[in-house]
Specification:
The complex is a heterodimer of chains A (301) and B (398). Chain A is mostly helical and 301 residues long. Chain A contains twelve helices and no strands. In chain A, helix 1 crosses helix 12 and helix 3 packs parallel to helix 7. Chain A is globular. Chain B folds into two domains: 210 residues, 3-Layer(aba) Sandwich (D-Maltodextrin-Binding Protein, domain 2), CATH 3.40.190.10; 158 residues, D-Maltodextrin-Binding Protein, domain 2 (3-Layer(aba) Sandwich), CATH 3.40.190.10. Chain B has 15 helices and twelve strands. In chain B, strands 1, 2, 3, 4, 5, 6, 7, 8, 9, 10, 11 and 12 form a twelve-stranded mixed β-sheet that branches. Classes of the chains: A mainly alpha (301), B alpha/beta (398). Chains A and B meet through helix 3, helix 5, helix 10 and helix 11 of A and helix 1, helix 5, helix 6, strand 7 and helix 15 of B.
């Protein structure tokens, strides 16, 4: 048995590890964002002699706004699609399968992660390329298109995002759905609720925790995704990650890239906090109306 | 159908969408065994070449002062023939350790962060980045007396504006930027950059066009077309050029791909018109010689040169000079060309190559073509050029 002291030191070690490898790099980026990049012929990557906000103003110039809007639209839509796809799958896994098959099916859900991400995306490129596998399949069933024009568009980015992130939505949702006490459902059934009513008033509200977890888990990395839009969307599927990368690479402008990255973090945190406040508000409003309805019913009897 | 699939499988080995460079396709070609120039070399020839290379390696040590036991090379991934290194090691007994990068910017950032402690002796920057590296103090000057084979270099490829008198660098290989198109789909006359932009707007071409993923190569299309100096510091002219591209080219571009040939975008029909480097375009031509046409466009196009250089903080300076001498031996140079498919700067390397190389005209530029080539040097407008490129990318996406 581990003593409490050992456990505590293990825990603090985890925090130290986290601080070192997450907070330190982010902190360095934060400092760089306030510095300035000297001309290409001067030594040093980022000059920290006089700090200022100029990078942030520059980061806000065109085309950051429009590209950020495109990225937000993509991330919101793809997250919603993930949710729509993940919910029935998670429900099926959690509620319709026996313990053993459930493990196998969950394993199948995460199985794609065992193959390199790049390879899977390139597989999609082969499938969707103008004269590729999909083209061949369509021809085989007698649908003669000239060529397939999905690749290197926003639609392809959407396919890539949904394909890649949907397992991250299924997993937390399946866990929450599985843990719903069957006695609650039994009770609702005993009181005469129809299956759809049970789902609407018992299962779905409880599963909201999983939906929220899935949404955050999927939405946050999606907004900053750099690889998927580059691989699937080509030039037409541009997202904000690509702009940030180009400042670090071709631009050799680390302070501007850092400012853009920090801005993205701030926007993400703001969105997550806003959504959390909204969900807390909605939840308490629902509870309030329900309690009022129950009180009304009690008063009536 | 089968053919298409074979081409498609090539794709899997080529990581697209990364900050790729013109060298990367070579690793892919090597990995699938699509030997670039290997046609026509017999086993006996190869054995002769190997022993000649080992001799060259041995000779290089004689003039090299005090050689050390190791040599550390920092270069583009898969940008040298592996046999070049094994022959050197056999001939000299000096081990070469190789680190690789995939962009000049990444290499410069690493050297800067290490402040001379990166541990590399040799780096391979592209011409335009040399003034920047020299000014930042990232390079050491060369000692020409330690490199007798320096005389083998073609004088036309020395003394570039980025390194007058070749104080810091030795040209490794060079190439040009042009375009390649599917002549079964584009039947109009294709000679200039204006033709490139006009053809991109054709209904059967628009949306199947790739351009190089490089701010300066893209901006160049408009600057060359308008007769503006590629190296201009005039911000208004850069803005005008970019606006022209946003209006005329952006609506038709489907991808920014530095390897439309090597990664199979052309062969698979994903692109029917691509801006490309000659060595990469040749990859598509080797697969479909009758389908594609390569153009070194009027009125101007690029000459780029990659170069050997000594890194600041190098511990094996004499050994590095011996290696430079070795690599400039024509046999070794030919061995490099067989692998990379890019012309080296050694003057008579052609007489050491196998006869009748496929698509030779894409590797070796004619005098007339060379006359219209210009070089780019990274200058103070670099940040603006990156921003304009971002504007251009945003225009494609929206």
């Amino acid at each position: 048995m581990l003593g409490r002291g050992t456990l505590r030191s293990f825990t603090s070690l985890t925090y130290a590890w986290f601080a070192l490898w997450f907070l330190a790099p982010t902190g360095i980026m934060l400092i760089y964002a306030f510095g300035h990049t000297a001309s290409v012929t001067q030594a040093g990557l980022v000059n920290l002699n006089h700090l200022g906000f100029s990078n942030f103003f520059q980061a806000l110039r065109y085309p950051t706004g429009p590209v950020l809007m495109i990225s937000l639209e993509n991330a919101v839509l793809a997250t919603a699609l993930c949710g729509v796809i993940a919910y029935p799958v998670a429900y099926f896994i959690a509620r319709k399968l026996g313990p053993r098959t459930r493990v196998i099916v969950l394993l199948l859900v995460v199985l794609p992660f065992w193959t390199d991400y790049l390879l899977r995306m390139l597989g999609w490129r082969i499938f969707l390329s103008p004269l590729g596998l999909l083209y061949g399949a369509l021809h085989a069933i007698g649908w003669h298109v000239t060529y397939i024009s999905i690749l290197d568009t926003r639609a392809a980015v959407m396919i890539g995002l949904v394909y890649n992130y949907v397992p991250l939505f299924i997993l937390p949702l399946a866990v929450v759905l599985e843990r719903i006490d069957p006695l609650l459902l039994q009770a609702a059934d005993d009181l005469g609720a129809k299956p759809w009513t049970i789902f609407r008033t018992v299962t779905f509200p409880i599963s909201m925790a999983g939906v929220v977890a899935g949404t955050v888990l999927v939405f946050v990395p999606m907004l900053g995704d750099y690889v998927t839009p580059t691989l699937m969307g080509g030039a037409r599927g541009l997202m904000i990650g690509s702009l940030i990368a180009s400042e670090f690479n071709e631009g050799q402008n680390w302070s501007l890239g850092a400012a853009m990255a920090i801005l993205l973090i701030v926007i993400l945190v703001a969105i997550v906090v806003a959504c959390w406040l909204l969900s807390v508000g909605v939840r308490s409003a629902i509870l309030r109306t329900r309690r009022r309805a129950i009180e009304r019913d009690l008063a009536a009897t | 159908m089968d053919n298409t699939h074979n081409d498609e499988t090539l794709r899997i080995l080529a990581p697209k969408g990364h900050p790729l460079t013109r060298r990367k396709f070579i690793s892919m070609a090597a990995a699938v065994g699509a030997g670039v120039l290997t046609v026509g070399t017999s086993a006996a020839d190869a054995a002769n070449a190997t022993s000649a290379m080992e001799t060259a390696a041995k000779n290089s040590l004689k003039t090299a002062g005090k050689p050390t036991k190791n040599l550390y090379l920092y270069t583009w991934g898969q940008y040298d023939n592996p046999t070049t290194f094994t022959a050197w090691q056999k001939g000299t007994g000096i081990a070469i350790q190789i680190g690789s990068y995939d962009s000049n910017e990444a290499m410069i950032a690493k050297l800067e962060l290490a402040k001379g402690t990166a541990g590399y002796d040799i780096v391979v920057p592209t011409g335009g980045y040399i003034p920047e590296m020299a000014a930042k103090g990232l390079l050491l000057p060369l000692t020409k007396s330690l490199i007798p084979n320096f005389k083998n270099l073609d004088p036309a490829l020395l003394n570039f504006p980025w390194d007058r008198g070749n104080k810091y660098t030795i040209p490794k290989d060079f190439g040009t930027t042009g375009f390649i198109y599917d002549k079964t789909i584009i039947t109009r006359k294709m000679e200039t950059w204006q033709d490139f932009v006009t053809a991109a707007a054709l209904p059967q071409v628009s949306g199947r066009v790739s351009i190089l993923d490089d701010p300066n190569d893209v901006l160049a299309i408009a600057l060359w077309n308008e007769g503006v100096d590629w190296n201009t510091l005039d911000k208004a002219k850069l803005h005008t050029a970019n606006n022209w591209l946003i209006k005329n080219l952006a609506p038709h571009v489907s991808n920014l791909d530095s390897y439309p040939g090597g990664t199979g975008g052309l062969s698979s029909g994903t692109y029917v018109l691509s801006q490309a480097w000659n060595g990469d375009a040749r990859q598509a031509l080797l697969k479909d010689p009758t389908k594609f046409e390569w153009v070194v466009p009027f009125p101007k196009s690029e000459i780029w040169v990659d170069n050997w250089a000594l890194a600041k903080g190098a511990k094996n300076v004499d050994t590095a000079h011996a290696f430079f001498d070795y690599i400039l031996d024509p046999t070794v140079s030919a061995n490099e060309m067989i692998y990379t498919g890019y012309n080296t700067a050694v003057a008579d390397v052609r007489s050491y190559l196998p006869k009748n190389l496929a698509q030779e005209s894409v590797i070796f530029l004619t005098k007339a073509q060379e006359k219209r080539l210009v070089a780019y040097l990274v200058n103070s407008t670099n940040n603006l050029r990156t921003q304009l490129y971002d504007d251009f990318k945003a225009a494609i996406a929206s």
